[in-house]
Amino acid sequence: MRLPRRQPPASLLACLTLHAWTLCTAASPPQSSPSSSSSSSSSSSSPPCPSACSCSGQLGKVVCTRRGLSRAPSGVPPNTRYLNLMENNIGLVQADTFRHLHRLEVLQLGRNSIRQVEVGAFSGLANLNTLELFDNWLTVVPSGAFEYLSKLRELWLRNNPIESIPSYAFNRVPSLLRLDLGELKKLEYISDGAFEGLDNLKYLNLGMCNMREVPNLSPLGGLEELELSGNHFPRLRPAAFRGLRSLRKLWIMSSQISLIERNAFDELTALVELNLAHNNLSALPHDLFAPLRFLVEPHLHHNPWACGCEALWLAAWLRESLPSNSSCCGRCHAPPAMRGRFLLDVERAALRCSAPFLSDAPADLNISEGRGAALRCRTAAMAAVRWLLPDGAVLSHASASRPRLAVLHDGTLNFSHVLAADTGLYTCMAANAAGSANASAYLNVTAAELDASAYSFFTTVTVETAAPPRKPPPPTAPAAYRPAYTATATVLVRGTRRGPSAPTATPDASTPPPSPHTSLDEVMRTTKIIIGCFVAVTLLAAAMLIAFYKLRKRHQRRATVTAARTVEIIQVDDGGGGGGG
Ligand SMILES: *[C@@H]1O[C@H](CO)[C@@H](O)[C@H](O)[C@H]1NC(C)=O
Ligand SMILES: *[C@@H]1O[C@H](CO)[C@@H](O)[C@H](O)[C@H]1NC(C)=O
Ligand SMILES: *[C@@H]1O[C@H](CO)[C@@H](O)[C@H](O)[C@H]1NC(C)=O
Ligand SMILES: *[C@@H]1O[C@H](CO)[C@@H](O)[C@H](O)[C@H]1NC(C)=O
Ligand SMILES: *[C@@H]1O[C@H](CO)[C@@H](O)[C@H](O)[C@H]1NC(C)=O
Ligand SMILES: *[C@@H]1O[C@H](CO)[C@@H](O)[C@H](O)[C@H]1NC(C)=O
Predict the structure, then answer these.
(1) Nearest ligand, CA of residue 437?
(2) For labeling, which of 37, 86, 399, 509 is most exposed (least CB within 10 Å)?
């Protein structure tokens, strides 16, 4: 996905909320595992403390903040569990810097000027739990340095000028529970495999990252909280959050969302809290929240809601799912009579709504196997659309169970290619709060016949030798018109006309092409002739080759024999001369 360089103007409130959250989480002390075995031994002889730091040997805590350090100090005691190097001037973290700190649990390197983290920079930190690298100058995720961090739980990379997140950026740290990638303002690209391997991740922050599309988050099956606020998502697509079956909280505030497409939240079956506040939403697709059985905290305020027929289902859902006195959820912007009222107050009695109208209903289709096909079903954008298949399955915009079939944005059922087994009745079912509309079409897939496939084989053979036809011939009888056959005939006829042994039956270029049935015979005949010629030429060539080879061999043998004789003669002569002398 591409991301723009420009940062979208996030609303002040969202910024405040995000920053408040950051402060809260940053302020809370990191969890320390109950491994206090080291403290008793270290207290007896407290090791020396680096001069730039203050150490509390009992707690294993070493603090070296705001000392203008340009590199990590040497001599940090080996029993250190917390090392705080924040707000210094460190630009490079070299390999093996912390090699002896086997007990280190928290390493704070935030607010430095780190541009590079070498491979091996964190080697030896087998017990590291939290690594903070926020507010630095990293332009890449230092994936290579994460190699040895087998117990890492939290990784903070917020506010670095990271430009892209490649595939497997974090697969060396599958133990991660929390990952903060917020405020990556230079981010332009997130690979589809960026989050591969993070099976245990529970919290992910991608807020204020200049994203224009929700990245592929499907590897994050254990994710419980996702922050996406402050980005720029003009639309959320169907199944945008595929695979996030454990997600409980989803925040997408201040992201300029104007359209949420049908089935966008399918698969978020565990969702409890959904924050869509401060966006540009006027309506949501009918029954968008139907799969969200546990949703009790929708935040919909500060959106320009249209309180007409399209809001009926949402109002009913809110009344049913929320406490009766709740005023949580957005106010009407239109129509003028409703302006300022709560979404919740939209009543069916005050409106005249009608069931969805199918402006483009599916039509019966005869088609041969292997071709692409589309069955249309166009209706209002906010009406729900589902397709009932011949086998009883129901397909929605989010369905991925049928690889050849997809329900497109406009409701069309698209086949990448049809099979004979697809034959049957397809029903489009559109629904809104006022009712439903169904339309069916029969898809008749004709199996590709055996001889037809044989013809197509010859087509590929002849197309290579024949010049392309100057103009395609018009189909003569549309009812009996079979595109595959006619095309084959045309190509073959033109191909043979240029050939050396063209049969006399070949029609002139000016005469209209023959009807498919007569041309079929011609095809057979010309094909046979071509094959015959081809076989004959091949046989002749083979015979000539063999003859030539034999001739050459005989000639060679004669040549070697004469050569041997010459040698013999010479040797004999020499031997005779030597014997004589
Ligand atoms: C908000 O949505 C409306 C359509 O619902 C659209 O015309 C308008 O351009 C959107 N505004 C912004 C800022 O995206
Ligand atoms: C809404 O009702 C709940 C109990 O159902 C009550 O605790 C709460 O105070 C009420 N809130 C308001 C604003 O009335
Ligand atoms: C499909 O083929 C059948 C039989 O040839 C014909 O009756 C029917 O009209 C065709 N349907 C379409 C949509 O072409
Ligand atoms: C729809 O099907 C056609 C083939 O008929 C295919 O080329 C196209 O990519 C499909 N579109 C989508 C969005 O799947
Ligand atoms: C459309 O089909 C659905 C499911 O079979 C059914 O519940 C509904 O009543 C039908 N609506 C109409 C108008 O036929
Ligand atoms: C399906 O198409 C084939 C070939 O066009 C035709 O012979 C057959 O009658 C069609 N069947 C139906 C049910 O339309």
Answers:
(1) 5
(2) 37
**Across the beta sheet with 54-56, what order do the strands follow?**
54-56, 61-63, 82-84, 106-108, 130-132, 154-156, 178-180, 203-205, 225-227, 249-251, 273-275, 297-299
- Name the nearest CA neighbour of 246 among 181, 191, 199, 180: 199
CA distance 133 to 35: 25
All structural domains of the chain: 365-446 (2.60.40.10)
pLDDT at 412 over 90: yes
Q: Report pLDDT for 16.
A: 41
Q: Ligand 1, atom 7: nearest CA belongs to which residue? A: 258
How many Å lie between the centroid of ligand 5 and the Cα of residue 236?
A: 28
Q: Which ligand is closest to the CA of 446, given by its number?
A: 6
- Residues in contact with ligand 5 by the CB-under-6-Å rule are 429, 436-438
- Between the CA of 277 and the centroid of ligand 2 the distance, in Å, is 22
Report the nearest-CA residue for atom 4 of ligand 5. Answer: 429
Q: What is the pLDDT of residue 472?
A: 43
Q: Is the pLDDT of residue 478 over 70?
A: no
CA distance 4 to 265: 25
pLDDT band at 523 (very low <50, low <70, confident <90, very high): low
pTM: 0.72
Q: Are strands 332-334 and 297-299 parallel, antiparallel or unpaired?
A: unpaired
CA-closest residue to ligand 6 atom 9: 444
Tokens of 30: 């990191």
Two structure tokens written together for 250: 């989803």
Report, in this order, helix, strand and coil percent for the chain, each rounded to 5. 25, 15, 55
